[in-house]
Amino acid sequence: FPRLFKEWNIAKLSIEYDSEPFGKERDAAIKKLASEAGVEVIVRISHTLYDLDKIIELNGGQPPLTYKRFQTLISRMEPLEMPVETITPEVMKKCTTPVSDDHDEKYGVPSLEELGFDTDGLPSAVWPGGETEALTRLERHLERKAWVAN
């Protein structure tokens, strides 16, 4: 991360809050690296409607065990934010990104090797993914008339 922060001139990093233990540990390490590199980290909660840590804190460090208790706790919290504006083609007209000839070289997804990982002996992907694979699978399903009729 430190090399990429510098190489890509990163000033802010936005991440999704993860309430799982692995995610908390991972995110703490990333936030530490970002802080050391002078990168501001913005964390948002959107996997859940409510801040789970805040609910547990309000309940004396324990998760609520009943729905009634959960409702009592959230009634003491700030109201939820209203949904943001729906993304429409009109809204997107305001968004522009300058693209230069070396855009992919500068901002493309780096390979594992470029990130410094040793890939010798790694098995190939068990489940191929991506849009091309998804479209191939969709076409295969659409060829099955019985499947389409359902």
> Could you say which structural class the secondary elements and strand pairing correspond to?
mainly alpha
CA(first)-CA(last) distance = 48 Å
Portion of residues in beta strands equals: 5-15%
Q: Give the biggest beta sheet.
A: 2 strands, parallel
Which residues form runs of ≥5 with pLDDT under 50?
none
Q: What's the order of the H and E elements? A: HEHEHHHHHH
Strand neighbour order, sheet with most strands:
1-2
How many beta-strand elements? Answer: 2
Q: What is the molecular shape?
A: extended
Radius of gyration: 22 Å
Number of helices: 8
Helix fraction bin: 40-55%
| Average pLDDT taken over every residue | 89
Please give a structural write-up:
With 150 residues, the protein is mainly alpha-helical. Among the domains are: 1-47, no CATH class; 52-82, no CATH class. Helices cover 43% and strands 7% of the residues. It has helices at 2-7, 21-36, 52-58, 67-75, 89-92, 103-107, 131-142, 145-149, and strands spanning 12-16, 40-44. It has a two-stranded parallel sheet. Strand 1 (12-16), helix 2 and strand 2 form a beta-alpha-beta unit. The longest helix is centred in the first third of the chain and has 16 residues, at 21-36. The model has no long low-confidence stretch (mean pLDDT 89). It holds the Pfam family DNA_photolyase.
